[in-house]
Write a structure and sequence with these properties.
The chain is of the alpha+beta class. The protein folds into two domains: 201 residues, UDP-n-acetylglucosamine1-carboxyvinyl-transferase, Chain (Alpha-beta prism), CATH 3.65.10; 206 residues, UDP-n-acetylglucosamine1-carboxyvinyl-transferase, Chain (Alpha-beta prism), CATH 3.65.10.10. It is 30% helix and 25% strand. The chain has a four-stranded mixed beta sheet. Strands 2-14-16-15 form a four-stranded mixed beta sheet. Strands 4-5-3-13 form a four-stranded mixed beta sheet, with helices on one face. The protein is elongated. The relative contact order is 0.16. Bound molecules: uridine-diphosphate-N-acetylglucosamine. The site of uridine-diphosphate-N-acetylglucosamine has 20 residues, from helix 1, helix 5 and helix 6.
């Protein structure tokens, strides 16, 4: 049994990783798919759901609204035919950021929704003004009183919406509302992350009328109702990238299976620029980081650019590169808190506002660090694997939100990592 509040990782680092491992289903894509089940009173079945605590929290949210949820070995089944409430408790709202995704489906199906401002990682200011402005354009009255949000609509009507920023959850919430609205909605400047595209594919399977998937403009003609279906969740590109960075930071070689290489282009090209050999096939990626790693500059931006969720793991890899690398974090405004701890392990990383300057190569040494958020936790593991000696990582509950048994994946690559 694991208890992520008291468990710690002990890593004996400084060894090259090598071998093969596999990637789980995508955390974020699975969260969106689970929320989509609220849009229909028919059964929905999902394969390849990752075993992580964010999914448990999302399912608790659906159950609290009256949905039936059951697990088989292979799949998750959700039936939202008996929803008996449209109000989400504060306790559940603040557990995860994706709790905000109940808004669109509940308003679309029942004309009302209540929730509290969502939780999630402390990685900066995370407003929901884009969600609210879009819902209002579709004919919803939204009232925010301190941290409680109440939304009501007698009839959602299609509209033209231009997002101020291609917010991922904002795009999804508005699509959720528009698929059952009266008339046509055109949303421009939408997020194009692969998890969003999977969600659009799912909604189309459910009977939604959406065109423009994968582009920055979606046209949605509202339908009367949606139906049950089944879907396999896409591989987690952030988990795949984390494993690639772990192998490379130890100067190792390895192959990662069950990846969609097409979703990894920004990472693969950055690796090649850094003189790391990458061979990508349809659903596997081989890397060899035995040559000198070169410094590179990275900007974390919306897809198809380099993902913000891999900014911290990439920074650790670049401590092993020859020269000064610069990473410019352009999505979140407070996502660099992990750097102080990594510097205590021997790195030389300087912060200037949204930019970090990484001087390498630096020999890291073991340390005792906390997983500050889900991706900073992944960075801490990579630092521990690259560092000589013993590293202890605590606060694993942050990591367990998004990585399902990452220690097992790393053990397949020969890592000396133990959960106690
Ligand atoms: C999602 C992902 C997260 C990922 C992020 C960017 C989930 C549960 N989380 O978060 O892992 O790091 O996409 O790829 O899927 N913003 C506003 N107003 C809004 C909404 C967002 O100003 O109403 C700003 C945010 O403050 C941030 C930027 O937009 O600076 C990006 O946020 P967004 O794309 O919305 O991220 P999330 O959807 O919350």
């Amino acid at each position: 049994m694991t208890n992520s509040h008291t468990d710690i990782f002990t890593i004996n680092g400084g060894y090259m990783l090598s071998g093969k491992t596999e990637v789980n289903g995508s955390k974020n894509a699975a969260l969106y798919a689970i929320a989509a089940a609220l849009l229909t009173n028919e059964k929905i079945r999902y394969y390849n759901i990752p075993d992580i605590s964010d999914i448990d929290d999302m399912l608790d949210i659906l159950k609290s609204l009256g949905a039936n949820v059951s697990y088989n070995n292979d799949y998750l089944e959700i039936n939202a035919n008996s929803i008996d409430g449209t109000s989400l408790s504060k306790e559940l709202s603040i557990k995860i950021r994706a709790s905000i995704l109940v808004l669109g489906p509940l308003i679309a199906r029942f004309g009302e929704a209540e929730c509290f401002l969502p939780g999630g990682d402390a990685i900066g200011n995370r407003p929901i003004d884009i969600h609210i402005a879009g819902l209002m354009k579709l004919g919803t009255k939204v009232n925010v009183n301190q941290d409680k949000l109440i939304a009501k609509s007698t009839q959602l009507s299609g509209s033209k919406i231009v997002l101020d920023y291609p917010s991922v959850l904002g795009t999804i919430n508005l699509v959720f509302a528009a698929v059952l609205a009266n008339g046509t909605t055109i949303i421009t400047n939408v997020a194009t992350e692969p998890e969003v595209t999977m969600l659009l594919d799912l909604l189309i399977l459910m009977g939604a009328n959406i065109t423009g998937s994968g582009s920055q403009t979606l046209t949605i003609i509202g339908v009367k109702r949606l139906f049950g279906t089944e879907l396999r969740i896409i591989p987690d590109r952030i988990e795949a990238g984390t494993l690639m960075m772990a192998i490379a930071a130890t100067r190792g070689t390895g192959t990662i299976f069950n990846v969609c290489s097409e979703h990894m282009s920004a990472v693969i090209e950055k690796f090649k620029d850094a003189n790391i050999i990458v061979m990508d096939y349809d659903n596997s990626i081989m890397i060899d980081a035995s040559n000198t790693i070169k410094s590179v500059n990275v900007q974390s931006v919306p897809y198809p650019g380099f993902p913000t969720d891999l900014q911290a793991p990439m920074a650790i890899l670049l401590t092993q590169a020859d020269g000064t690398s610069i990473i410019h974090e352009r999505v979140f405004d407070n996502r660099m808190l992990y750097i102080n701890e990594i510097n205590l392990m021997g790195a030389n990383i300087k912060i200037d506002k949204q930019k970090i300057f990484i001087d390498g190569p630096k020999k890291l040494h073991g340390g005792s660090i906390k997983a500050l958020d889900v991706r900073a936790g992944a960075a801490a593991i990579i630092a521990g694997l690259a560092a000589e000696g013993e590293t202890i990582i605590s606060d694993l509950f942050h990591l367990d939100r998004g990585y399902g048994k990452i220690e097992d994946q790393l053990k397949h690559l020969g890592a000396k990592i133990l959960r106690k």
